[in-house]
Amino acid sequence: MSKNEALGALQERWELGSFIRENRTNLLQEWERTVRRLPYARELSRPRLLDHLPDLLDRIAQVVETVRTGGDESLEGLPEVHALERLDSGFDLDEVAGEYALLRGCILQLYAQHVEAAGAGSLSVAMQEVVRFNRTFDEAVAAAVSRYARARERTLVALDRISEAALGTEDADTFLPKLLRVILETTEAVDSVTLLLREGDVLRVHASVGLEQEVASGFSLRVGEGFSGTIAAERCPREVRSAATDPLVRSEAIRSRGTRALYGVPLLYAGEVIGVANMGSRTTFEFSNEDKLLFRAMVSRVTTLIVQSQLAARQREVERKQAETLALLDSLLASVPASLALLDTELRYLRVNEALAASNGVSVEAHVGRTPGEVIPDRAPLVEALLRRVLETGEPLRAQEFSAPPATEPGVPHHWLGDYFPVRARDGQVLGVGGFLVDITERKKQEERLRQTAEFRERFLGVVSHDLRNPLNAILLSANALLRTEGIPASHTKMVRRIVTSGERMGRMIGELLDFTRGRLGGGIPIQLQRVNLRHLSRHVLEELEIGFPGRELRLHAEGDLLGAWDPDRLAQLLGNLGKNALDYSPADTPVDFSLHDEGDMLRMEVHNDGAPIPRELLAGIFEPFRRAVEGDAHPTSGLGLGLFIVREIARAHGGSVEVRSSEGEGTTFTVRLPRHGKRARESAGAMH
């Protein structure tokens, strides 16, 4: 190789334009590594970060090479396009200029290393290329900054106009047409702007300028269908160049209008698509990058305004419903005669009604914001203790009775019945506590009068029943003596027997009245525990019943150990009452079954009959005094209606219980359960055994 050829080859290695073209990949990698350290570039994807830089480096290399080729190359519009892309990505002017500075630094650093590695030589041409490179880079920065500034100013002006159009109203139907007209007027090539909002899976036209017929017709399509539906589904902008003939465009208004360029953008808020905005043109087949960037910026501002409008509408609806609820609550508070109050977690009154205010002697307004201790200091400790208990446990307190004089009648005790309950939000959080108070003073007075009346009546019955026994015993003794006297005519004997029968029946009724009085006033029916074989006792009771009900079938079934400590007379009375009840209310041709069952520490007795079922409305009170299993006086032998009441009291006196079940097809069964040693047998069990 000649000296000139070697010098030419070395010089070619030093040429900056060739270096840029040959090392473009390394230059871009080094620049990306450097720029990624900056906060504003960290989140960009690699395609968004590099965008037009490869093409820009090629253009810079061509311009630099004109030093030796003599051409007239320029950067064309690449810096401007790059600046618009950065504006759309949210970069500010300093950040765009900083990117170019880093790129220039990377190129010069790598180029200096390249020249140093190549060795010494003539650098005149190389240095001229460096000068041209710096000048070219300055032009690129100037062009980018100029375009960025113009686009930024245009965007800011458009956004200001949009904000002014929305000022003074929160109603989307009012300001949306104004906003769309601003968009239309800001971009010269645009002659129609349409906004579709999402309703579930449907996009519906809500406003339009230039295609108003779409609003009137209620044009809509589903997400994923057509031009706008595809934008909503893919969540990214979309453009078509012959909208009137494009099969994806479903709008007849767009087709009939002859729209050429159509550009759509999704309305994104908090990661959700709330609608789609489209701009169309009949005069151009393609919108410029600057027009699309401006449209996206304006649509972003419109999205924010729409969301604010929707939130404001929801807030107004919530406030309206809240006002209605509070009005209903106030109406309820005013109309309820009971005392009502709502308090917060600090026990400050939020709402009270007139009834509570009157009883406290303080106006409704004077309650609000104050605690019970400030309003009713004399009663506050009791009330606040109940309220705090509700707040601490989160559980209501029902039927709390207390006595206190109202403010209107100081010194006169009144009786109150209160319910206190937590007031919760929908998520269960306790927001406060409510109180419901009823003045039960009159009810207490009535209850006391009724108690005194009932006690007098029962005492009267007891006294009368006790005093009637002496003359009744005299009648029975005299009648029995007459029956034993010889020479009495047969007709007189029959009348005396009637006297005896009626007297014995009267004696049973007096006994029942005495038992009733003891059960009500004497602390229960008294019992005397003895060692009893219930099987033998039951047979004796059945024999007595057979005498009183000749011809009726009585059956006894007994199993297990039936020994225990009970009152034999009272158990005989219990079984006799149940047996007589079963015989009275069952057909004459049906049996009555008695069964005894050993259940360990307990013994179970059952008396069953196949009569008509006890009416449901009478079943619940069947063991109350003066009640019968059927309405009216169904049987000539009916007594006072105390038989089943006495059965219950005898069972209770032994520490046991009685229950009944009655249904069609199964008849009626009374079941008595008794502890084997009775209620008080343990003290005397050893002596009896």
CA radius of gyration: 52 Å
Uncertain residue ranges: 1-7, 633-638, 679-689
Oligomer status = single chain
Proportion of residues in helical segments: 40-55%
* Mean pLDDT, all residues: 78
Please give the order of strands in the largest beta sheet.
3-2-1-6-5-4
Number of strands: 18
End-to-end separation in angstroms reads 140 Å
Shape descriptor: elongated
| Helical segment count | 25
Proportion of strand residues = 15-25%
The main sheet comes to: 6 strands, antiparallel
Descriptive notes:
This protein has 689 residues and is of the alpha+beta class. Helix content is 54%, strand content 18%. Strands 3-2-1-6-5-4 form a six-stranded antiparallel β-sheet, with helices on both faces. Strands 8-7-11-10-9 form a five-stranded antiparallel β-sheet. A five-stranded mixed β-sheet has the order 13-15-16-18-17, covered by helices on one side. The longest helix is centred in the middle third of the chain and has 47 residues, at 289-335. The termini are far apart. The model is unreliable at 1-7, 633-638 and 679-689 (pLDDT under 50).
